[in-house]
Every structure is written in C-alpha cells, then in structure tokens.
Design goal:
The structure holds two protein chains of two kinds. Chain A is built from 14 helices and no strands. Chain A is mostly helical. Chain A folds into two domains: 42 residues, no CATH class; 214 residues, MetI-like fold (Orthogonal Bundle). Chain A is flat. Chain B is mainly α. Chain B has one domain: MetI-like (MetI-like fold). The longest helix of chain B is centred in the first third of the chain and has 37 residues. Chain B is elongated and about 75 Å long. The two termini of chain B are 13 Å apart. The chains are: A mainly alpha, B mainly alpha. Chains A and B meet through helix 1, helix 6, helix 7, helix 11 and helix 12 of A and helix 3, helix 4, helix 7 and helix 9 of B.
C-alpha cells in the first residue's frame, strides 16, 4: 500500500513539474517584452535592464525555467501588470468565491445525479425520462442555462439577485452548473448499476430474498460508486479551478471571472497564474482520489 | 441504440444543409442592418422570425451564417483532434517502453489543465482568427482520443489474430495498419462525434469572452455575449443562439451515443 501511495505521489509530482514547464513555455510565447509590460511604455532603458536582470530575463531559457520553478515553489507567481499585486495574493482572494460556488454546484450535481441514476433500478418506467433529461443536461451549455435562469428567476420573478456574490446569489449559478454534472453522474450510475446487477454477489443477495431496494442501495450502489468516485474528484477539481463562463454570466468574483478579466486587461501573469493554479488543483485532487482508493476499494489495499 | 445515431445525424445534416445553402436562401445580409435601428432590438415578426439585434441586423440570418463557422470549426477541430490523438495513441500503444511513458505523461499533463481555461490561456497569446481558434481547440482536444486509442491498441495487440500475424512474420507497420487500425474505427467514430460537440462548446465559450473569430462575422458565442446587455428588453437575443448551440451539441451527442458499440 505504501509503495502504491509513493508511486502515485511521485507521478503526481512529475505531472506537476510538467504542468509548470508547459505554463512556463506559454509565458515564453507571450508577445512583447515582459519587462516593458511591467515598467510601462515610458520606462528608460536602464530601468528595463534592471527589471530584466531582476526577473532573470537575460539568462538562458533553462536557467529562466529553474528560476521560475524556484519562484513557483515559494508560491510566487509574479505580479499583475495592472494592480501590481502578487498574483498569488489575488488568487487567494478569489479562491473562496469559487470554492463556495464549486462546492454548492458539486453537491447539487452529485445528489441529483445519483438519485436520477438510481431511479431506473427501483422504478423501471423512469428509464426513458432519466435518459432524456441526462442527454439534455449534457447538451445545454451551463452558461446559456445561466442566462436563462437569470432572466426567468432573477429578473422576471425577482426571486434571486441579478448576479454578484451572496448566499442567495449562489443558487442560480449552482443550478446552471449542477444540471450538467448531474447528467453525467446519472448516466454513469445508471450504466454501472445495470452492469453490476448481473454480478454474482447480486444474485446471492437476490437468492437471500432481499428486497430490490436494499439490493440496489446497499449492494449495487456501493459497487457503482467506485467508478463515480474518480469522476466526482476530477469534476470538483475542475470546478475549483474556476468556472470561467458561468462566473462571467453571474458576475461571480471567482477565479474564472479573474481569468476573463485578465484576458480583457491583457494581464497575462494573472491569466497564466489562474491556468497554472487550476491545473495544480487538478493534479493534487487526482492524487488525493488515488490515495483514498486505498480506503474506498479494499482490492487496492490488499494488492501490495 | 443505432436509432440515436440516425437522430443525431439527421439533426446535424439539417443544420449543415441550412448552413451550406445560406447564400442561396432569401436571407438578409447578416452583417448589414435589415431594419433601421436606433439601438433597440426588435422582437420576432413574420419577416424576421428571430427578431433583430441592437444594430437592426436579422438574428435568424446571423444564426444561420454563424452555423457555417461553428460547424466548420467543430468538424475540422474534431478531425484534427482525433487524427492527432489517434497517431499519438498508436505510437504510444504500439511502441511501448520509454516512448509510451513519455507520451502518456505528456498527455496527463495536458489533461490536467481544465479544457476551456487552457484554451483561453493559449488563445490569449495570439490575434484571434479562425485558424488560431482551430489550432487551440485541437491543442486541448486530442488527449481523450490519445488515451482511448492507446488503451485499445494495447488490448487489440493481445488478441489472437495479431499474435497469428506476428507468428507469420508480418512487419510492425503491417500489423499496425492491417490488423489493428481497422479495429479502431468503432473507438474513433464516437470519439469524433464527442470531440465535435466539445469543440462547439469551446468555440462558443472562446467567442463568448471575446477570443473567437473577430466581428463583424456572426458567431453564436459572441451573439450570446452581446445579448447580455439587452437580456431584460430582448430575451430573444440570448434564447435563439443558445438554443441552436444546444441543438447542435445534442446532435453530436446523439450521434456519439448511437455510434458507441454496445456491450453484450
């Protein structure tokens, strides 16, 4: 088990290193001179030279990458061109809003998805409905759903605020995001359940004379949950990295909105900061999911 | 489940015919005002079934011309992603060893970035154009195919007919092209449809935040973005582009569902 964990940790570190290298390469592709962007258009050549020296821009590329890596390891992602604030500070300010929205949407999506996925096993007539709803949920872009919800429930019915960060304001964006998540979970739970229902241990449970609801909820669902677990982790990580479009539609002050603003302001350190941060969250959560398999799936625990 | 493939194909085909035939249809110019406007959008009428926008342009015509670009990008990006992904997957799966490790770790790295965010990060570095848009979507979209193809190649390579071919002394290239590739179609086709639906969404998303094809060319994403300013007075401006986007995405999803081989 420890070997398994150590291997997973090592590969997560390798991927994280790769992520940092890819982000670094993207920053190299930036049009224009970063020093000029920092100092402004009226800077003297001496100032530019000084900034280049400070940032190590006069060094060979690999040395620049090493410098970048050591800065990132210390939590330094550079400074915003616009606000002059360290990017890490900005990210940390925006993270709570995104985390709040992500957690709400994710909980909603997971609950709704599992319930929808369970329905056909308990009540076969529901299958067609669940399939259509989940297909629709897949196809509707969350940001468009957000616009519609905003029009119907915030403007027309005035039940919720018209965007912005608040407790009641989280409901609509969470619904907009949650439907898509629920759709994918429902489909997975449904297909896994129907596969699981042919397994031997289910036959045993049936032979014991257990009621269908108990077989589905206690025996089959636990088995189906294993597949769902990875997806749940990945989706939470994806949401935590910022839900760009939905946050933009609802004027939600999170990481995604920050990225979009950075695009408008040509504030590339902030944009690359969000991109790197989001990928880092995915890698870390992925590792946590892998690690928790030792607890969720007994087969992994006993394999080593 | 083949029925849903037919449904999906019909949905896409209808839209494609409409888009391809747009210049022959009696539509107003999508980039010129069709009615005099003083900055107020007008609701749908018989003459303008989807209304007009704040510049007096016919929304219906803009939607159909927008479909030309969206479908073109979706299909090309999906082709590009699937071909790239398939090549990478074939290479990694058939060669194995160190190359496989390197290629698959790189795939992991790209997969770690949230798709749209990475697309934004890359697109922000260039002047927006359809070529850039296409390349960006391929750059973020090939990974799923690469993974699936690699796994499939590894499993096909274990099967008896490949073993027999190897025993007969077939070369590596021959085995790959004659004995493995033909079996990959059932994996590649649904992946192509799924990738196309993702491409539509990424394209709309990038256009929505202003990184898509520059104006005045009509695009669904930008129409949605512009509709935000008028959603209280002109909800039809956001209803139709989003509806059409959903329709197109659903078409590709149905197609993918129908093309996915059923187990048992």
């Amino acid at each position: 088990m420890f070997r398994y964990l150590a291997l997973k940790a090592l590969s997560a570190l390798a991927v994280l290193l790769g992520v940092s290298f890819l982000t670094f390469t993207l920053t190299l592709l930036l049009p224009g001179d970063p020093a000029a962007a920092i100092a402004g258009p009226k800077a003297s050549p001496e100032v530019l030279r000084q900034i280049r020296q400070e940032l190590g821009l006069d060094q060979p590329i690999l040395v620049q990458y090493a410098l970048y890596l050591s800065r990132v390891a210390r939590g330094d992602l550079g400074r915003s061109y616009i606000t002059r604030e360290p990017v890490m500070t900005t990210l940390m300010k925006r993270l709570p809003a995104t985390a709040f929205l992500a957690a709400t949407a994710w909980t909603l999506g997971a609950t709704l998805g599992v319930v929808m996925g369970l329905l056909p096993s308990l009540w076969p007539k529901a299958k067609g409905w669940v399939l259509s709803v989940s297909l629709l949920g897949f196809a509707v872009p969350p940001f468009w759903l957000g616009l519609i919800l905003l029009y119907a429930f915030a403007y027309r019915l005035a039940l919720f605020p018209l965007g912005g960060f608040s407790c009641s304001g989280v409901v609509l964006p969470a619904c907009a995001l949650g439907l898509g998540l629920a759709a994918s979970y429902a489909r997975i739970v449904m297909s896994r359940l129907s596969e699981t229902m042919t397994e031997d241990f289910i036959k045993t449970a049936k032979a014991k004379g257990l009621p269908q609801s108990r077989i589905v909820l206690r025996h089959a669902l636990r088995h189906a949950f294993l597949t769902l677990f990875t997806l749940l982790g990945l989706d939470l990580a994806g949401l935590l990295g910022g839900v760009t479009l939905t946050e933009t539609v609802f004027n939600w002050p999170g990481l995604g909105r920050l990225a979009v603003d950075a695009v408008f302001n040509q504030d590339l350190p902030v944009l690359m900061g969000v991109v790197f941060f989001a990928a880092a969250i995915v890698v870390v959560v992925n590792f946590l999911v892998d690690a928790s398999y030792t607890w969720v799936d007994p087969r992994v625990r006993s394999s080593e | 489940m083949a029925r849903s493939a037919i449904v999906g194909l019909t949905m896409i085909f209808l839209l494609a015919v409409l888009a391809a035939g747009a210049p022959m249809l009696p539509l107003p110019d999508p980039m010129q005002p069709a009615v005099p406007s003083f900055g107020e959008p007008r609701p749908p009428t018989l003459e303008h079934p989807c209304g007009t926008d704040e510049l007096g342009r016919d929304v219906c015509s803009r939607l159909i011309y927008g479909a030309r670009i969206s479908l073109f990008i979706a299909v090309c990006a999906s082709l590009g992603s699937v071909v790239t992904g398939a090549l990478v997957g074939l290479l990694a799966g058939s060669r194995g060893g160190f190359l496989d490790q390197v290629v698959m770790r790189f795939t992991d790295i790209v997969l770690s970035f949230p798709m749209l965010l990475l697309a934004i990060g890359v697109a922000a570095l260039f002047e927006p154009s359809s070529t850039v848009l296409l390349l960006v979507i391929v750059a973020v979209g090939w990974t799923t195919t690469a993974r699936a193809v690699r796994a499939e190649v590894l499993s096909i390579a274990q099967s008896h007919h490949v073993l027999a071919a190897r025993a007969l002394g077939a070369s590596r290239a021959r085995i790959l092209l004659r004995h493995i590739l033909p079996l990959l179609w059932s994996t590649l086709l649904p992946l192509g449809a799924i990738t196309a639906s993702h491409a539509l969404l990424v394209d709309a998303g990038l256009s929505f935040i202003g990184l898509g094809i520059p104006p005045p060319t009509p695009s669904w994403g930008r129409m949605l973005s512009e509709s935000q300013a008028y959603y209280r007075v002109a909800p039809w401006l956001m209803l139709f582009p989003g509806g059409l986007l959903t329709y197109a995405v659903a078409g590709f999803q149905f197609l993918a569902l129908g093309l996915t081989p059923q187990k048992r």
